[in-house]
Write the structure tokens for this entry.
Amino acid sequence: MNTVNNKSVLFLIALLFQVFTAKAQSSFNRLYGTYKGSAVTETVATGGGAAFKSQKKFDVVIEKTANDTKLILKDYKLGTYTFEDIVFDNLTVTYQPENKRWKFTFNPLSGDYVNAKGTAYSLQLHGSLVGSDNYIYDNGTIEFTFEIYNKAESKTKNVYKGKNDVAAGIRSVATKNNKDIVYDLHGRRVQNPRKGLYIINGKKVLLNNK
């Protein structure tokens, strides 16, 4: 009798784990897309000069590739240069159900060369999260603080707040390319997708296949 009961308990635990994993994966997929917002910025010179404060508008995109999830700053301006894509790799999240939010981290930039938009120049950029209060909420809001700079003597701190623009994160196409990497909204790889909403190359796509 005890053996039967033990097997039942183990089966129940395994079933609950599968349900929880599926729900967590489904919730994680909701993080993908384009966040529209702005950052309060503060540029500080290491020589003790006065801090320069301003506000910048730019988008943040979270997308999934084959083996990685990335956070990308779109059209971010640093000094006189604008960068079309500043990519932070290895976005990792931990869900906090009591606060209905995802705490996240990503790999820092360590002197990566990034092309300046509209120029032939590539600049070395350094950047990382500041502190540990960096979150994406269930309602689609993102809040995080990061530092970025080209020269160590002049660093810019950014406090960003934005909202996931679902419409911008979904594009409608008639068919898919054979080289596209396709996942359903549960994170499962799909070989022959039919009409519906999928994650293709890290972006939400509405397929209109018949």
